[in-house]
Amino acid sequence: MTSTDPAETFRHEAAGLLEILEQSLLDLEKRPDDGDLVSSAFRALHTLKGSGAMFGFTAVSSFIHDFETAFDKVRKGEAAATAPLVAAALRAKDHVAALIADESAVDPQKGAAILRALAEAISAPAPNGSDWLVSFRLPDNALIHGTNPKLLFAEMQSLGACEILDRSVPVAPVGEIDPDFLYLGWAVRIDGAVELPAIEDVFLFIRDDMELTIERSDGGKQENATAEEAPPQAARASEVLRCEPESDASSSAQKDKTATLRVPAERLDELMDRVGELVIAQARLSQLAVSRHDPALVSIAEDIERLTSSLRDTTMGTRMVPIGTLFGRFRRLVHDLSRDLGKQVTLVTSGEETELDKTVIEQLADPLVHLIRNAMDHGIEPSAERRASGKGDTATLRLSAAHRGAEVAVTIADDGAGLDTARIRAKAEASGLIAPGAVLGEADVNRLIFEAGFSTSRSVTSLSGRGVGMDVVKGTIEGLRGSVDLASEPGYGTEVTLRLPLTLAIIDGLLVRVGSGRYTIPLAAVEECIELPKNAGEMRGRSFLDVRGELVPFMRLRDLFHADGEADVYQKVVIVSSGQIRIGLVVDQIIGNNQTVIKQLSRLHSTLKTFSGATILGDGTVALILDVMNLVGFGQKLEETRRDDVLARAA
Amino acid sequence: MHALTIRLQDEIFALEATSVREILDTVPITRVPNAPDFVGGLINVRGTVVPLADLRVVFGMQRPPTDQDTRIVVVEFELDGEPLVAGILADKVHEVTEIDAGSMEAVPAVGMRWPPAFIRSIGKRGDGFVIIPDMQRIFRIEAGLDAAAA
């Protein structure tokens, strides 16, 4: 066993807790009444304080202690989770993170200032004196089940000064009234000094089916005011109960915690390597079993094969991380940026459950930060401009992820001004990226923003505009063997789509032979295999295949790979696709399916775009894995030139 | 210098012994289409895929097919700050020996059959010469790493 540094363990744990805290705070800003969020933030703080003290992070725990004290007021309903409070709490959270990272590098004055801000935010609106307004309605059959509302009132009265208000509820016409049914609902005003949990306890045993809201009410309200009519400021300053008693919530959180396990990433990598080797060994065993014609051996080999493939899937599953973990981080970024830039922006995310390999997720963070910053700084216009063009003040930034075939597409879309093609062109000409007057399509001009050293923003802001960024984005995504798509509609916004291959350590592959070489095609990209028709016309020098009425360009891999020897008489076409585009790959022979352990090619071969990696076959030889995305790109160019040809002929 | 001497055609080369990981009999070589001839192959070294380099390409030698003397020397060395593992095809592997540092000489600017840029120095051993290749420079230039970085 490896011994671990306890401080490191704490840092890992703290990172997770701080993230929960931040998410809760950000949510709290939108739903200040949500008691769940307050308790989840409070729990995170409390755990941090405890383990901080245990691991000797005294500065951390003493700071959190004060932070927690402030927050406890919110939990008890004595203070409201106002915007200034959330802002101060977010700063406090950053301060805690800094303290954990390096205590000595942090100025204690800063901590004190944050705490002062927190205290101010807490004390400013003091809804302390206002009464509780409890409105409830029991289920129709409550009387039949033996619940007596009178006892509830008696219990509430025992808590403190209590006043029962009427609450108008539609009652059935006289003739249809069933005396066993409870038609009424009530509102009760209770003295503000009473603790919230005490009121909750009154309803402890009947909580499940009833409607119940407990709010701070404005002291000077009308006698017959109902919960629905509560003025908005009272609603904000209130705490609406949506959850079961807190003890339940925390025990379910406890359950979640024991169900997950923190494992160092390198151990998972090691496990993946071992499974990879096992898959290779298993392939050899299967091959041997078949050639020996020993039924007993074959049956064992089949068992091993089944086990290996399920072990492979499980292991791969452990490395898959939902992209939501990454999206979560950007909420804070958007929150801060929209404050700094004075632009109102809502971040809408979707497809958080889309899973990607953890290494891909990690490398995706920086490009996404760049893209979000760019969208908010350049893409989204200031509010005044938005109003002028008839859009709402609040801009929307959409971040979404979805599976598309063998790829995952991550899209960042804003509803801003769109790209200014004329300005990009002028800038590109000025900086010598393109020749003045060069004939380029709009899309091609727009793609220039991915060139190194390109920036159209006239002013260099602290956020973006230094001309680094977009080329870094493109570089990183291409490093992951993905691609970047750009779509822009002037006046309506810009959409950047990152396409990432699902490249994981092991994939299912289709093994083919070209000349004397064997190659693997990722099975997820394969649509079908057909025989190459004898008359497969090279139409005017270009190769297209008629697949059920659709023209599919095809490429002879023999030519592409300069294969030796004679071509087989009956050549096969493997039709692969990526997104909308399909392409046929002509091979000599289709050998069959195999489990493919992807081994990265060394730096010496990193310039080869037609291969995404290599794998080791059952007989121990190495086979190259075709990079379908790049091959399809190649086919797309063929397709475009054909279209141009057709257009030229028509003209 | 502690060195492993190998024969490429009719010349003796010395590889730094500390960078040599293992010596293998010939294994099936997978051709990499469209790769530079120098690193045109891949081999399986106990479960890892390793590029196979042919120094004979760099020195413009003939490349007869493998025979019973052919070996693959797996080397590992630092290249631009990162470790690189590669197989080197050798027509024959001789021995691990000590090359006297005093006998090593700089490469003469003229009168060389081989590109001097790729040779670090020339040592003497017995009555013959030993070529000590500059592996870093060879791999950087011949495998197109410079172009990839630019």
TrEMBL record, chain A:
Pfam families: CheW, H-kinase_dim, HATPase_c, Hpt. It catalyses: ATP + protein L-histidine = ADP + protein N-phospho-L-histidine. Involved in the transmission of sensory signals from the chemoreceptors to the flagellar motors. CheA is autophosphorylated; it can transfer its phosphate group to either CheB or CheY. Residues 506-637 form the CheW-like domain. Its EC number is 2.7.13.3. The modification Phosphohistidine is found at residue 46. It comes from the Bacteria. Signal peptide: none annotated. PROSITE patterns: CHEW, HIS_KIN, HPT. PANTHER family: CHEMOTAXIS PROTEIN CHEA, SENSOR HISTIDINE KINASE CHEA. One of its GO terms (cellular component) is cytoplasm. It is an enzyme of class 2 (transferase). Residues 1-103 form the HPt domain. One of its GO terms (molecular function) is phosphorelay sensor kinase activity. Residues 300-504 form the Histidine kinase domain. Keywords: ATP-binding, Chemotaxis, Kinase, Nucleotide-binding, Phosphoprotein, Transferase, Two-component regulatory system. This is Chemotaxis protein CheA. The keyword Kinase applies. GO terms for biological process: chemotaxis. Residues 216-236 are annotated as: Disordered. CDD domains: CheA_reg, HATPase_CheA-like, HPT. Gene3D superfamilies: Histidine kinase CheA-like, homodimeric domain, Histidine kinase-like ATPase, C-terminal domain, HPT domain, SH3 Domains.
Automatic annotation (TrEMBL), chain B:
Gene3D superfamilies: CheA-289, Domain 4 (2.40.50.180), SH3 Domains (2.30.30.40). It holds the Pfam family CheW. One of its GO terms (biological process) is chemotaxis. Residues 1-144 form the CheW-like domain. InterPro entries: CheW, CheW-like_dom_sf, CheW-lke_dom. One of its GO terms (cellular component) is cytosol. This is Chemotaxis protein CheW. It comes from Jiella pacifica. The lineage of its organism: Bacteria, Pseudomonadati, Pseudomonadota, Alphaproteobacteria, Hyphomicrobiales.
